[in-house]
Protein backbone atom coordinates (compact mmCIF):
# COMPACT_ATOMS: atom_id res chain seq x y z
CA UNK A 1 0.00 0.00 0.00
CA UNK A 2 1.40 3.37 -0.93
CA UNK A 3 1.97 5.65 2.08
CA UNK A 4 1.19 9.36 1.73
CA UNK A 5 3.91 11.52 3.22
CA UNK A 6 2.15 14.18 5.25
CA UNK A 7 2.58 16.25 8.39
CA UNK A 8 -0.75 14.90 9.60
CA UNK A 9 -0.63 12.37 12.42
CA UNK A 10 -1.29 8.75 11.52
CA UNK A 11 -2.35 5.89 13.76
CA UNK A 12 -3.35 2.25 13.59
CA UNK A 13 -7.12 1.98 13.80
CA UNK A 14 -7.84 -1.57 12.65
CA UNK A 15 -7.41 -4.78 14.60
CA UNK A 16 -4.53 -7.08 13.75
CA UNK A 17 -5.65 -10.60 12.86
CA UNK A 18 -3.54 -13.72 12.98
CA UNK A 19 -3.24 -15.70 9.75
CA UNK A 20 -1.56 -19.06 10.38
CA UNK A 21 1.84 -18.46 11.91
CA UNK A 22 2.14 -14.85 10.70
CA UNK A 23 0.40 -11.50 11.17
CA UNK A 24 -1.91 -9.88 8.61
CA UNK A 25 -1.02 -6.46 7.24
CA UNK A 26 -2.55 -3.78 9.52
CA UNK A 27 -5.35 -1.50 8.31
CA UNK A 28 -4.10 2.07 8.39
CA UNK A 29 -5.83 5.40 8.07
CA UNK A 30 -4.69 8.99 7.75
CA UNK A 31 -5.89 11.02 10.72
CA UNK A 32 -6.68 14.69 10.08
CA UNK A 33 -8.10 17.40 12.28
CA UNK A 34 -11.50 18.87 11.48
CA UNK A 35 -14.29 20.89 13.00
CA UNK A 36 -17.98 20.27 13.51
CA UNK A 37 -20.42 22.64 11.85
CA UNK A 38 -24.15 22.93 11.29
CA UNK A 39 -25.78 20.67 8.72
CA UNK A 40 -28.37 22.06 6.29
CA UNK A 41 -28.22 25.61 7.61
CA UNK A 42 -31.27 27.39 6.18
CA UNK A 43 -32.46 31.01 6.35
CA UNK A 44 -36.25 31.12 6.31
CA UNK A 45 -38.60 33.94 5.31
CA UNK A 46 -42.15 34.38 4.09
CA UNK A 47 -42.84 35.06 0.39
CA UNK A 48 -45.80 37.26 1.37
CA UNK A 49 -45.97 40.62 3.14
CA UNK A 50 -47.70 41.09 6.45
CA UNK A 51 -47.43 41.85 10.15
CA UNK A 52 -45.79 39.33 12.49
CA UNK A 53 -48.42 37.99 14.88
CA UNK A 54 -46.46 35.34 16.78
CA UNK A 55 -42.93 33.95 17.12
CA UNK A 56 -43.27 30.88 19.34
CA UNK A 57 -39.59 29.83 19.22
CA UNK A 58 -36.33 31.11 20.67
CA UNK A 59 -32.71 30.80 19.55
CA UNK A 60 -31.16 27.58 20.83
CA UNK A 61 -34.46 25.71 20.95
CA UNK A 62 -34.90 22.32 19.28
CA UNK A 63 -38.10 21.78 17.27
CA UNK A 64 -39.63 18.87 15.40
CA UNK A 65 -40.45 18.86 11.69
CA UNK A 66 -43.64 20.83 11.02
CA UNK A 67 -43.38 22.94 14.17
CA UNK A 68 -44.65 26.52 13.85
CA UNK A 69 -41.76 28.98 13.80
CA UNK A 70 -43.50 32.26 12.91
CA UNK A 71 -46.95 33.42 11.84
CA UNK A 72 -48.15 36.61 10.20
CA UNK A 73 -51.52 38.11 11.07
CA UNK A 74 -53.94 35.95 9.06
CA UNK A 75 -56.79 38.52 8.92
CA UNK A 76 -56.00 40.09 5.50
CA UNK A 77 -55.21 36.69 3.98
CA UNK A 78 -58.46 35.15 5.24
CA UNK A 79 -60.56 38.08 4.03
CA UNK A 80 -59.02 38.16 0.55
CA UNK A 81 -59.61 34.43 0.21
CA UNK A 82 -63.24 34.76 1.33
CA UNK A 83 -63.86 37.58 -1.13
CA UNK A 84 -62.60 35.48 -4.03
CA UNK A 85 -64.39 32.33 -2.87
CA UNK A 86 -67.69 34.21 -2.49
CA UNK A 87 -67.70 35.08 -6.20
CA UNK A 88 -67.17 31.55 -7.44
CA UNK A 89 -70.71 30.21 -6.91
CA UNK A 90 -72.42 33.12 -8.68
CA UNK A 91 -69.98 33.05 -11.58
CA UNK A 92 -70.37 29.28 -11.89
CA UNK A 93 -74.15 29.68 -12.22
CA UNK A 94 -73.68 32.41 -14.81
CA UNK A 95 -71.25 30.21 -16.77
CA UNK A 96 -73.68 27.28 -16.71
CA UNK A 97 -76.52 29.50 -17.90
CA UNK A 98 -74.38 30.96 -20.69
CA UNK A 99 -73.47 27.43 -21.80
CA UNK A 100 -77.16 26.43 -21.92
CA UNK A 101 -78.02 29.59 -23.84
CA UNK A 102 -75.26 28.81 -26.36
CA UNK A 103 -76.71 25.33 -26.82
CA UNK A 104 -80.22 26.74 -27.42
CA UNK A 105 -78.93 29.23 -29.99
CA UNK A 106 -76.94 26.46 -31.69
CA UNK A 107 -80.09 24.30 -31.87
CA UNK A 108 -82.00 27.16 -33.50
CA UNK A 109 -79.10 27.77 -35.87
CA UNK A 110 -79.07 24.09 -36.88
CA UNK A 111 -82.78 24.42 -37.73
CA UNK A 112 -81.93 27.52 -39.82
CA UNK A 113 -83.99 29.65 -37.43
CA UNK A 114 -81.10 31.48 -35.79
CA UNK A 115 -78.60 33.81 -37.45
CA UNK A 116 -74.81 33.67 -37.60
CA UNK A 117 -74.50 36.77 -35.45
CA UNK A 118 -76.77 35.38 -32.73
CA UNK A 119 -74.77 32.16 -32.66
CA UNK A 120 -71.46 34.04 -32.47
CA UNK A 121 -72.69 36.30 -29.66
CA UNK A 122 -73.91 33.29 -27.65
CA UNK A 123 -70.53 31.56 -28.03
CA UNK A 124 -68.68 34.74 -26.98
CA UNK A 125 -70.95 35.15 -23.94
CA UNK A 126 -70.34 31.53 -22.94
CA UNK A 127 -66.55 31.84 -23.23
CA UNK A 128 -66.51 35.12 -21.30
CA UNK A 129 -68.63 33.67 -18.48
CA UNK A 130 -66.49 30.56 -18.21
CA UNK A 131 -63.30 32.62 -18.35
CA UNK A 132 -64.45 34.90 -15.55
CA UNK A 133 -65.41 31.88 -13.44
CA UNK A 134 -62.01 30.25 -14.00
CA UNK A 135 -60.20 33.53 -13.26
CA UNK A 136 -61.88 33.85 -9.87
CA UNK A 137 -61.22 30.19 -9.10
CA UNK A 138 -57.54 30.75 -9.77
CA UNK A 139 -57.61 33.90 -7.67
CA UNK A 140 -59.18 32.00 -4.76
CA UNK A 141 -56.49 29.30 -5.04
CA UNK A 142 -53.79 32.00 -5.03
CA UNK A 143 -55.33 33.64 -1.94
CA UNK A 144 -55.39 30.25 -0.19
CA UNK A 145 -51.71 29.75 -1.05
CA UNK A 146 -50.84 33.21 0.32
CA UNK A 147 -52.70 32.39 3.53
CA UNK A 148 -50.68 29.18 3.93
CA UNK A 149 -47.40 31.00 3.22
CA UNK A 150 -48.07 33.40 6.09
CA UNK A 151 -46.91 30.61 8.42
CA UNK A 152 -43.29 29.44 8.71
CA UNK A 153 -42.98 25.79 9.70
CA UNK A 154 -39.83 23.74 10.29
CA UNK A 155 -39.04 21.68 7.17
CA UNK A 156 -37.20 19.13 9.32
CA UNK A 157 -36.26 18.50 12.94
CA UNK A 158 -34.11 21.54 13.60
CA UNK A 159 -32.24 23.68 16.05
CA UNK A 160 -33.11 27.38 16.00
CA UNK A 161 -29.91 29.32 15.35
CA UNK A 162 -31.36 32.83 15.36
CA UNK A 163 -34.67 34.66 15.53
CA UNK A 164 -34.61 38.00 13.72
CA UNK A 165 -38.28 38.96 13.92
CA UNK A 166 -40.57 40.32 16.62
CA UNK A 167 -44.32 40.53 17.10
CA UNK A 168 -45.66 43.63 15.34
CA UNK A 169 -42.82 43.84 12.83
CA UNK A 170 -43.86 44.48 9.22
CA UNK A 171 -42.48 41.95 6.73
CA UNK A 172 -42.11 43.15 3.14
CA UNK A 173 -40.29 40.67 0.87
CA UNK A 174 -40.94 42.43 -2.45
CA UNK A 175 -37.32 43.51 -2.91
CA UNK A 176 -35.08 41.29 -0.76
CA UNK A 177 -36.79 38.75 1.50
CA UNK A 178 -35.54 39.32 5.06
CA UNK A 179 -34.22 36.41 7.11
CA UNK A 180 -36.77 35.85 9.85
CA UNK A 181 -35.66 32.50 11.27
CA UNK A 182 -32.41 30.60 10.74
CA UNK A 183 -32.30 26.87 11.42
CA UNK A 184 -30.05 23.84 11.02
CA UNK A 185 -30.60 20.11 11.41
CA UNK A 186 -30.92 19.02 15.02
CA UNK A 187 -29.85 15.40 14.49
CA UNK A 188 -26.87 15.83 12.16
CA UNK A 189 -23.65 17.84 11.91
CA UNK A 190 -21.01 18.40 9.25
CA UNK A 191 -17.40 17.58 10.06
CA UNK A 192 -15.18 19.62 7.75
CA UNK A 193 -11.45 19.73 7.09
CA UNK A 194 -9.11 21.15 4.45
CA UNK A 195 -6.95 18.50 2.86
CA UNK A 196 -4.56 18.06 -0.03
CA UNK A 197 -5.22 16.14 -3.23
CA UNK A 198 -3.02 13.29 -1.96
CA UNK A 199 -4.97 13.07 1.27
CA UNK A 200 -8.26 13.11 -0.65
CA UNK A 201 -7.08 10.13 -2.68
CA UNK A 202 -9.99 8.20 -4.17
CA UNK A 203 -12.62 9.45 -1.73
CA UNK A 204 -15.92 10.24 -3.44
CA UNK A 205 -19.35 11.53 -2.48
CA UNK A 206 -21.23 8.97 -0.42
CA UNK A 207 -18.11 7.19 0.89
CA UNK A 208 -17.98 6.38 4.60
CA UNK A 209 -15.51 8.21 6.85
CA UNK A 210 -15.02 7.72 10.58
CA UNK A 211 -15.34 10.88 12.68
CA UNK A 212 -13.90 10.75 16.20
CA UNK A 213 -14.34 13.07 19.14
CA UNK A 214 -12.40 11.70 22.06
CA UNK A 215 -13.44 8.07 22.52
CA UNK A 216 -16.71 8.60 20.64
CA UNK A 217 -16.26 7.42 17.05
CA UNK A 218 -19.07 7.64 14.50
CA UNK A 219 -19.33 6.64 10.85
CA UNK A 220 -20.27 9.53 8.59
CA UNK A 221 -20.82 9.96 4.86
CA UNK A 222 -18.96 12.28 2.52
CA UNK A 223 -21.46 15.06 1.79
CA UNK A 224 -19.35 17.52 -0.23
CA UNK A 225 -15.88 17.92 -1.72
CA UNK A 226 -15.10 21.54 -2.60
CA UNK A 227 -11.94 22.54 -4.47
CA UNK A 228 -10.31 25.92 -3.83
CA UNK A 229 -7.04 27.70 -4.57
CA UNK A 230 -5.52 31.09 -3.86
CA UNK A 231 -4.08 31.17 -7.37
CA UNK A 232 -0.50 30.63 -6.25
CA UNK A 233 -0.31 27.41 -4.24
CA UNK A 234 -1.62 23.96 -5.08
CA UNK A 235 -5.32 23.17 -5.22
CA UNK A 236 -6.74 22.08 -1.89
CA UNK A 237 -10.06 20.55 -0.95
CA UNK A 238 -12.61 21.10 1.77
CA UNK A 239 -14.06 17.77 2.80
CA UNK A 240 -17.47 17.77 4.49
CA UNK A 241 -18.68 14.61 6.21
CA UNK A 242 -22.29 14.37 7.40
CA UNK A 243 -22.49 12.56 10.75
CA UNK A 244 -25.23 11.83 13.28
CA UNK A 245 -25.02 14.11 16.31
CA UNK A 246 -23.65 12.36 19.39
CA UNK A 247 -24.25 13.27 23.02
CA UNK A 248 -22.35 16.47 23.72
CA UNK A 249 -21.44 17.01 20.08
CA UNK A 250 -21.80 20.67 19.07
CA UNK A 251 -20.90 22.87 16.14
CA UNK A 252 -17.49 24.45 16.63
CA UNK A 253 -15.89 21.48 18.39
CA UNK A 254 -12.73 19.84 17.09
CA UNK A 255 -12.88 16.32 15.74
CA UNK A 256 -10.62 13.87 13.92
CA UNK A 257 -11.48 12.47 10.49
CA UNK A 258 -9.95 9.08 9.71
CA UNK A 259 -9.34 8.85 5.96
CA UNK A 260 -8.27 5.72 4.07
CA UNK A 261 -4.59 5.86 3.08
CA UNK A 262 -4.56 4.64 -0.51
From TrEMBL:
Q: Which SUPFAM superfamilies match?
A: HlyD-like secretion proteins
Protein name, per record: HlyD family efflux transporter periplasmic adaptor subunit
Species the sequence originates in: Guyparkeria halophila
Amino acid sequence: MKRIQSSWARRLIGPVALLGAGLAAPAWAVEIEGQLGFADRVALSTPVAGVVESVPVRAGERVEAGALLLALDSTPFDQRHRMAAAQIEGLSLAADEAALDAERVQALYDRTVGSDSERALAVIAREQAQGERDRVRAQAALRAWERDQARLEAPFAARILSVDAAVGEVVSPQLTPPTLIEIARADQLLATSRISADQLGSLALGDEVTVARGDDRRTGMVDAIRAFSDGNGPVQYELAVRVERGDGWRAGQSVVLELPDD
